[in-house]
């Protein structure tokens, strides 16, 4: 298994299958045979099983729940290929590999019944895919996309739905012995987009919504409603990893899952035309690339909803900025060029801060560079190529090596 252990604790490393089209079981079978088994062979040449964070959208959820006997069949298919599932990516419910995704990735949000219905079904599916006494998390949109509405009434509705899902997952634990958690994933411009807004949402909305659960409220929130932290998202917002994790835990908010990626960064943008050209070349039509800029004092002074808006800024409008970052998931290995770099070092610091916490046990770490298909013809593609198998192999390898340097040891290769 791509599992690592330290002091009696165990974590799982793999990749998120949101990089693949996965709207049906036929899609899943295609990428398992076409990519996943080859990545497993390269990452684990001595044998063993590769972990996956399985992306479940609404169409695939409907297909599986129409006949739940298909779930153990899927588990058997995974095992036969030397693969296993340690979590579910339930963030985008629509086709995440459509020609244009943009803000559709956040729809439906947590104020809409379709989000709760699909997510409860994901928990049922994950519980059947996990091993006996296993633990895993369903990552999800952190509320909704704020430009589509963000008032107290809507937040209360979102919180009530999340608590209902967490309560359903608590019942699953009682029935199956497997622990499934709901893990909202903070992202720029969502309801919870940084540590401060996460803490506020838990304090003002989630905890009041959970009071109806009586004495079980704290236990259910802690065990079944942690957060999923994405290293790329933290870096876009210029959040310092250790401080963010410490602030969440000080408020009793557990980190239950993590996405491992990084973002591009351009320093001194007003006097760095090569860096500006690099960023503008990344503007593409499929995904949103929220863009942020900070001044020399560390204050975030620029907030753009997408990278296209950056193209319209001149050097004079960037004069007060020391650094620009964009929400574009880029590879974890050695990517640096003329005028730009990545936040890989911050991702390594994020892993170090995360894995020293006692609640790291059973956590899934999912490599989540889902953008390989859209940067093939950009400066990124020319720098690192666009071979998906090779790229995933290198990214998982980098993550495993970084975690091993922190004193974690890989489980036996035959596991």
Keywords:
415 residues, alpha/beta, TIM Barrel, 2 domains, ten-stranded mixed beta sheet, five-stranded antiparallel beta sheet, 15 strands, globular
Describe the overall structure.
The protein has 13 helices and 15 strands. With about 425 residues, it is α/β, with parallel strands linked by helices. The chain has two domains: about 325 residues, Divalent-metal-dependent TIM barrel enzymes (TIM Barrel), CATH 3.20.20; about 60 residues, no CATH class. The strands form two sheets. Strands 1, 2, 3, 4, 5, 6, 7, 8, 14 and 15 form a ten-stranded mixed beta sheet that branches. Helix 5 crosses helix 6, helix 5 packs across helix 7 and helix 6 packs parallel to helix 9. The protein is globular.
Beta-strand percent range: 15-25%
Mean pLDDT score, rounded? 95
Which CATH class of the largest domain? Alpha Beta
Rg over CA atoms: 20 Å
Largest sheet geometry = 10 strands, mixed
SS field, number of helical segments: 13
Residue stretches low in confidence (pLDDT < 50, at least 5 long) are none
What is the number of independent domains?
2
- Could you state the order of secondary-structure elements as H and E? EEHEHHEHEHEHHEHHEEHEEEEHEHHE
At CATH level 3, the topology of the largest domain is TIM Barrel
């Amino acid at each position: 298994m791509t599992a690592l252990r330290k002091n009696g604790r165990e974590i799982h490393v793999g990749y998120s299958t949101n990089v693949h089209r996965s709207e049906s079981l036929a899609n899943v079978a295609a990428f398992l045979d076409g990519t996943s088994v080859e990545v497993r062979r390269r990452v684990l040449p001595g044998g063993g099983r590769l972990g996956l964070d399985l992306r479940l959208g609404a169409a695939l959820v409907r297909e599986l729940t129409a006949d739940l006997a298909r779930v153990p069949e899927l588990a058997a298919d995974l095992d036969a290929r030397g693969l296993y599932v340690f979590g579910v990516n339930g963030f985008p419910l629509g086709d995440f590999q459509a020609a244009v995704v943009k803000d559709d990735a956040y729809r439906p949000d947590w104020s809409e019944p379709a989000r709760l219905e699909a997510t409860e079904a994901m928990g049922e599916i994950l519980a059947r895919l996990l091993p006996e006494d296993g633990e895993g998390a369903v990552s999800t949109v952190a509320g909704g996309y704020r430009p589509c509405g963000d008032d107290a009434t809507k937040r209360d509705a979102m919180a009530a739905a999340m608590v209902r899902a967490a309560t359903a997952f608590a019942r699953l634990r009682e029935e199956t012995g497997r622990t499934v958690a709901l893990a909202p994933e903070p992202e720029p411009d969502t309801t919870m987009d940084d540590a401060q807004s996460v803490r506020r949402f838990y304090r003002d909305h989630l905890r009041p919504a959970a009071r109806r659960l009586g004495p079980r409220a704290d236990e259910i929130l802690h065990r079944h409603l942690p957060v999923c932290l994405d290293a790329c998202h933290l870096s876009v917002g210029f959040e310092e990893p250790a401080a963010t994790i410490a602030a969440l835990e000080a408020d009793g908010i557990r980190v239950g899952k993590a996405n491992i990626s990084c973002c591009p960064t351009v320093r001194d943008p007003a006097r760095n035309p090569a860096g500006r050209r690099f960023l503008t070349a990344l503007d593409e039509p499929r995904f949103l690339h929220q863009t942020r800029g900070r001044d020399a004092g560390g204050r975030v002074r620029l907030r753009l909803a997408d990278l296209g808006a950056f193209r319209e800024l001149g050097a004079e409008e960037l004069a007060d900025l020391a650094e620009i970052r964009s929400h574009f998931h880029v590879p974890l290995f050695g990517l640096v060029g003329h005028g730009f770099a990545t936040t890989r070092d911050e991702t390594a610091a994020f892993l170090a801060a995360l894995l020293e916490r006692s609640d790291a046990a059973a956590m899934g770490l999912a490599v989540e560079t889902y953008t390989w298909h859209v940067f093939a013809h950009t400066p990124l593609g020319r720098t690192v190529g666009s071979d998906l198998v090779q790229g995933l192999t290198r990214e998982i390898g980098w993550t495993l090596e970084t975690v091993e340097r922190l004193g974690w040891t890989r489980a036996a290769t035959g596991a």
